[in-house]
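JOB MANIFEST
job_type = single_chain_structure
chain_count = 1
residues = 259
[input]
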Amino acid sequence: MAWDRLGSGPPVVLLHGTPWSSALWRPVARALSRRHSVYLWDMPGYGASSKAADHDVDLGTQGELFAHLLEQWGIERPHVVAHDFGGAVALRARLLHGARFASLCLVDVVALSPWGSPFFALVREHAEVFSQLPPAIHRGALEAYIRGASHRGLRDDDLEMLVRPWLDDVGQAAFYRQIAQADERLTREIEARYGEIDEPVHIVWGTADTWIPVDRAHRLAEAIPHASLTLVEGAGHLIQLDAPSELATELSDWLARVR
């Protein structure tokens, strides 16, 4: 498993989602590292971590691993910032595996049913077929899928950063395998427990997120009654690239409030 630490100070752990990696968080991590020890990690099956076919990469496995990883790092109560299905990973670690946080910031997260696009459903049913697509067709489908997560459009270098881990034979198989293992049951079993979270919680959401629409932000704020909510206008699901300055400022302000 690939991981990195930047800066010094109170610990902050950044969790990515799918089909992303810690590379999506790195510019934000550099900004936060001026006052914090910022931990980045690629979940198994993603980024620079192992993509071995015999490694489970479902939300249940990732949540248990995250709680164990905090123990290995010797971090008892970090600030946690999670994006996409990293939100479900953090929530499962907190509610099912004994992890405790100093605070939790949920950024356009997978946390409430329903989730998963029609593309997700199609791949789940035919993952083996998709894994055998010719490389050029796979790349075209992958790029079109990822472009749909941005509201403001992706620069060529950002798109390349996002697709690169999935382009070789191992990466292509891993891309479809992680979708095949996605299961709403793993969020449904914890949804009723969100009110148990007593750490400070902040929710950040792009108003133009078409992957996980903004109504989920309001539903999540209702499920965690003490949570605060900030909406970022004109940002899509890839809020790190659509509104990088707004997001970095929001996270810096949040971490200053909960120090």
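[summary]
The chain has twelve helices and seven strands.
The two ends are 29 Å apart (CA to CA).
exit_status = 0
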